[in-house]
Amino acid sequence: MVAALFTIACASLVLAGTIGSVAIPLADLPAALFDALRGQGTTLAATLLELRLTRALVAFVTGAALALAGVLMQALLRNPLADPYVLGISAGASVGALAALLFMWAAWIVDGAAFAGAAAISLLLYWLARRELRADGGATSLLLTGVILSSGCMALVTLMLSVAPEGRLRGMIFWMIGDLSGAPLRVLPWVVLGVTLLYAARNARALNVIAMHADGAASLGVQVGALRKGLYVCSGLLTASAVTTAGSIGFVGLIVPHACRFALGPDHRLLVPAATLAGGTFLVLADTLARTIAAPQQLPVGVVTALLGAPVFLFQLHQLRRP
Amino acid sequence: MISAHDLTLKAGSRLLLDKLNWQAEPGQSWCVIGRNGAGKTTLLRTLAGLCPPSAGQLVLHGRALDQWPLPALARQRAFMAQARNDAFGYRVIETVLAARHPYASTRYWEDDIDHRHCVAALQAMQVDELADRDIRTLSGGERQRVAIAAVLAQDTPLILLDEPANALDVGHQMSVMRLLARLCREQAKTVVMIGHDVNLAQHAASHVLLLKGDGRWTAGSVAEVLQAPLLSQYLGHPIEAIRHGSRHIFVPQEASP
């Protein structure tokens, strides 16, 4: 199953490489890839491929991070409706990024400010909910605190949007929706994804136990406090790295874990790798659609994920309701 | 097996249990009886090592309870909570397999031995035909039996159960109690359970611990403790003992007009 998903993920990258306003025939692909990898994009095909593959890889790591963050957040909160943004980490990033955009700082400062905003909210929430993360409490007050922090941040976002001059609004709104055009390919998101994936896979059994039993998991030998903290840190890092790269792309972190759970069941030993691969694939395909459907106009990928995500999610929900 | 030394429990500033000195031996089955809020669940959670006592000490197998590493402790005692809240649609067999976690925390998947234990536990609770069902679609009684099956699959010398008879029909109540009594008799397990039904307790328990909720407690064998005057005092309602064949049936007296 996981192998099949891996194959599909690779296929989606190939597809993203060939499709666009100028299509690259499949036969030219190996030569172009070879050129691109040597760093000498001499042919048009090689240049295009380099651009598209870079973007597809960014899409993949972002989608994978969001889906994995969704799985971990849902297990942490024991709530299948949680998503990576529910605790306000992305809202914190929005405040940082929009402030940077409002004052027209350089692009790298926007990214830095987004990350700083996400980190600040994560630390604040951790401090406020530290007792609950430690051990035996339920996750209600963590969730409530996160939601309140999130709405506080969103108020700041609305404030900035309402005072921003006309010319900068477009960039700010694109950031909010989530946009992959011009997103740089960095090493850090891959490192974050790799490390958290390893952590999640190592603790997949314990994840099942806390998803089933909440605090009773301790009676099965699970270090509940440490695991909760680990999950919080992992999903926070993943979310921060994803929103820093591409803005707050909605729905991936909610529907991909759901779709995987629907297809494979809630066992985290399958769910963790499957959702990671499926999330990456989903965002690569959504982004390919976003840049081709109205070509040469490029839509922000967040619009596509939301437009695809809402009906898929509703469909699933009502399928589940049926006995 | 497990012993309490001057164990004191408090809920906030309210004293629940004062200096409990008590021990449960292998083969004994204890039923904890008391009024609502008397501290039965708090005591059971403390025995499980899930919350620390206000004062005093618990010793399991000659070693202080709080000195046990969690995974090793999970191979010594199983704990079933009173209520369950199923957020995800795990299958019945998956929830029971999760109870094998303490034996296989380093392996990614469970092995054949784990599966055999789980199937046997499901059969013992007569829920083996539900193995592939979504846990959220079970009835209350079925869910309760699956939870007991998970405790059996954990296969520990000490079994702690918070109201195992909850939501079960009379037939299943009796078969669960018989099963617990047999585990104590044949495999020398130690059972500590909370119950409200004094008559049911006689079927499964060899010993009874009465909690008053203000610090007072009484412990002893069923014959010693299940006496109408003592029960009336601890349960806060006059109880009458009616002789039926070789045993007593305890009924609450009707309130005086």
Largest sheet features of chain A: none
**Can you count the helices of chain B?**
9
Radius of gyration of chain A: 20 Å
Gyration radius of chain B, to the nearest Å?
19 Å
Apparent shape of chain A: globular
Mean pLDDT of chain B: 90
Series of H and E elements of chain A: HHHHHHHHHHHHHH
Strands ordered across the widest β-sheet of chain B: 6-7-8-3-9-10
Fraction of residues in H or I helices of chain B: 25-40%
Oligomerization category of the chains in this entry: heterodimer
The level of helicity of chain A is: over 70%
List low-confidence stretches of chain A: none
Label the structural class of chain A: mainly alpha
| Biggest sheet layout of chain B | 6 strands, mixed
C-alpha end-to-end distance of chain A: 25 Å
Q: In total, how many beta strands of chain A?
A: 0
Please give the number of β-strands of chain B. 12
| Bulk shape of chain B | globular
SS element count, helices of chain A: 14
Task: Round the mean pLDDT of chain A to the nearest integer and report it.
Answer: 85
Describe the SSE topology.
The complex is a heterodimer of chains A (323) and B (257).
Chain A: H1 2-18, H2 29-37, H3 44-77, H4 89-102, H5 107-128, H6 130-134, H7 140-163, H8 166-177, H9 188-202, H10 204-213, H11 224-246, H12 252-264, H13 268-292, H14 301-321
Helix pairs in contact in A: 1-3, 1-13, 2-3, 3-9, 3-10, 3-11, 3-12, 3-13, 4-5, 4-7, 4-8, 4-11, 5-11, 9-11, 12-13, 12-14, 13-14
Chain B: E1 2-11, E2 14-24, E3 29-34, H1 40-47, E4 55-60, E5 63-64, H2 70-74, E6 77-80, H3 92-98, H4 112-124, H5 140-154, E7 158-162, H6 170-187, E8 190-194, H7 198-204, E9 207-211, E10 217-221, H8 222-225, H9 228-235, E11 239-244, E12 247-252
Helix pairs in contact in B: 3-5, 4-5, 6-7
GO molecular function (chain B): ATP binding; ATP hydrolysis activity
InterPro entries (chain B): AAA+_ATPase (IPR003593), ABC_transporter-like_ATP-bd (IPR003439), ABC_transporter-like_CS (IPR017871), P-loop_NTPase (IPR027417)
Protein name (chain B): Cobalamin ABC transporter ATP-binding protein
